[in-house]
Amino acid sequence: MDKDVVNIGKSVVIKGELSGSEDLVIEGTVDGKVELSEHVLTVGSHGKLKAEVFAKIVVVLGEVVGNITASEKVDIRDSGSVDGDIVAPRVAIAEGAHLRGSVDMQKKPPAAAVPVQAAKPEVKLAPLPAGPPVPGGQRIAAG
Questions:
Q1: Cα dihedral 7, 47, 37, 73 sign
Q2: Domain-located, residue 122
Q3: Which of 20, 51, 66, 73 is deepest in the core (most CB within 10 A)?
Q4: Is residue 99 part of a domain?
Q5: 71 φ, ψ to 5°?
Q6: Are strands 86-87 and 81-83 parallel, antiparallel or unpaired?
């Protein structure tokens, strides 16, 4: 393996913020915040997270209560459960998985692709002359 993967065992309980610069597999309990901006977070089948999650890729086989934000993908497997909102460009939800929350798959445009508001000429419309009344109280332009 060329990538480091850290495992948090079933009996481990973490309360607070958890961050790192390697892939992480959680089989224990985490209560707080998990931040792995450039790495993969896997919530194992015994894992229980009550946390806000930020990662590159999130794979859920266990239980997550809290919002998940992923820069690439969220994958909820058949044994996985998410109770919270998901924000990611790609989301996979297996048959039998549980999701209670919203999913936002809007891709964010690169900063260079955001159009700059060009100065638009101001258009002024001349007022219409008052014409004869029409049913409904509106007036039409004479002409």
A1: positive
A2: no
A3: 51
A4: yes
A5: -75, -20
A6: unpaired
